[in-house]
Design brief:
The chain contains six helices and 15 strands. With 337 residues, it is α+β, with helices and mostly antiparallel strands. It folds into two domains: 5-68, no CATH class; 96-335, Extracellular Endonuclease, Chain A, CATH 3.40.570. The protein has a seven-stranded antiparallel β-sheet with strand order 5-6-7-10-13-14-15. A two-stranded antiparallel sheet has the order 1-4. It has a two-stranded antiparallel sheet with strand order 2-3. The chain is globular, with a radius of gyration of 22 Å. The model is unreliable at 1-8 (pLDDT under 50).
């Protein structure tokens, strides 16, 4: 709805940039997400409700409160208990480190975390935990802006990726929607523009999808697997040529095409809540069709992918366990852990 005159009168020397209204509700609470906000800026907000009193609605206001959005250059550290997370960067340098949240079985849960690079319109890593509880048969979409990152720093992926040199590019998910289709609030977030990269259609629908499906077979009713996946444009210290696509059907933004993709996986054993053992494995692909090839042939150690990307994966593991786990490159060893 538009803001009421009473609400607008609470804002002096400013502008109402976002308004949220709720449908009729009973007792309880509700929340709202404000999207498209600028970084490093203070915003003021007020909650109000309309209460029926003696046959007429009366507006009741809370006090005006404020919050300040983070600067993209701020240092951010995510939760040290989340085993899926790579090491947090000491400075974001214009990137965004954020976590999406949603509901699962009526409980608030973290969905996935990203390190988003607006210069490439892509998340350099996407980290999440997967278990059978997240998988069902829901359908997702449509694609939409990520409300936690300024819209001006994203690009629409709808019809964004045309053909180039005879190759058709898909809107490739980094966290697959099938890994989050047990709840609409979780699955919707897999359709944020920040979760997409331009993926060679044969690669996306072939060897990459086959690997994603294999990851979902790893877990039984009580198991979890920790996943980090992402695009690579140039290896650490490398100077590979990066080709681009122009989003001519929407905003004209130039989107780089990754030269490689990686996925790293972790499983752990616990005793009394503490991690006592761990196993990990990585997969590294050049970004091309790989028609008819088996994804298992691309298994490498996590150590190797760390060297290629410069990221420190699974940094929240106890150091001794991390060092041992990240040397494995055998799929059967990992699967049977």
């Amino acid at each position: 709805m538009g803001t009421s005159s009473s609400l607008a009168s609470l804002v002096s020397n400013g502008q109402v940039v976002y308004a949220q209204s709720a449908l009729t509700i009973g007792r309880g609470s509700f929340s709202a997400t404000a999207g498209g906000l600028d970084e490093d800026k203070t915003y003021y907000y007020v909650a109000f409700m309309e209460v029926l009193v003696d046959g007429a609605y009366k507006e009741v206001y809370g006090s005006v409160k404020s919050f300040r959005t983070l600067s993209a250059s701020a240092s951010v550290t995510l939760n040290k208990d989340w085993l899926e997370l790579p090491e947090s960067p000491s400075s974001l340098g214009g990137k965004y480190l954020v976590t999406m949240r949603g509901t699962l079985n009526e409980k608030d849960v973290r969905n996935y975390s990203i390190l988003y690079d607006p210069s490439r319109y892509a998340s350099l890593w996407t980290a999440y935990v997967y278990s059978n509880a997240y998988h069902d048969s829901g359908t997702g979409g449509p694609w939409s802006v990520n409300p936690q990152i300024p819209a001006s720093k994203q690009t629409s992926v709808y019809k964004a990726y045309p053909s180039l040199d005879g190759v058709t590019y898909d809107r490739g998910h980094q966290i697959p929607n099938a890994d989050r289709n047990a709840d609409v609030s979780l699955q919707k977030q897999t359709y944020y523009w920040t979760n997409s990269t331009p993926q060679h259609a044969t690669f996306n629908q072939g060897i990459w999808e086959n690997l994603e499906s294999a990851v979902r077979t790893l877990v039984s009713s009580s198991d979890s697997v920790y996943v980090v996946t992402g695009p690579v444009y140039q290896t650490a210290g490398g100077s590979e040529t990066v080709r681009t696509l122009t989003n001519s059907s929407n905003d004209g933004k130039v989107v780089p095409i990754p030269n490689y993709y990686y996925k790293v996986l972790l499983k752990v054993r616990r005793s009394g809540g503490a991690v006592t053992a761990a196993s990990a494995i990585g997969f590294w692909f050049t970004h091309e069709a790989h028609s008819g090839e088996n994804w298992q042939n691309f298994a490498v150690s996590v150590d190797e992918i760390e060297q290629k990307t410069g990221f420190d994966f699974f940094a929240n593991l106890p150091p001794a366990l991390e060092a041992t786990a990240e040397t494995n490159k055998n799929w059967n060893t990992f699967r049977n852990f």
